[in-house]
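Q: I have 142 residues here and want to know how they pack in 3D. Can you give me a structure?
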Amino acid sequence: MVWVYPAAPPAALLGDGRPGIPPVRRPRKGADVTGRSAPSYGQLLAQAQELGRVDGRFAAAFEPAGNPLTGVAPGPCLGRSPAEFARLLWAGGSGEPPAGLEQNAPNWYATGFAEGLAERRAEQLRAEQLRAELTHFRWVLS
């Protein structure tokens, strides 16, 4: 067997510790290298609020007009318990949802629900006022 030695030393690998070679940043063990990162706690709460806002806008057609839902303790979020709602928001995240999400997400959902309900009711009121003005205007012209 004949050993052939290279004519020159092998090229330096990035981060191999030789002088003049920059270190390579390697992902930490267990890091998500797919390019997706877990949402922040604030993003999860904002998502809960937006889900509540959408549900509130939808519920405006069904909720009694005299029910402003202010100061009401949060109820089921999308028909789920607080723990189930936290897991829904955390879907795709590894492990358990962040601490406190189970307690805080329903409050943010309820806030969004009340906001969405108020927004939709204000839009409905403006539409009714516009219809009344148009009806009055038609009556004056006829």
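Q: Anything worth noting?
A: The chain is about 50% helix and 0% strand. Residues 41-141 form one domain.
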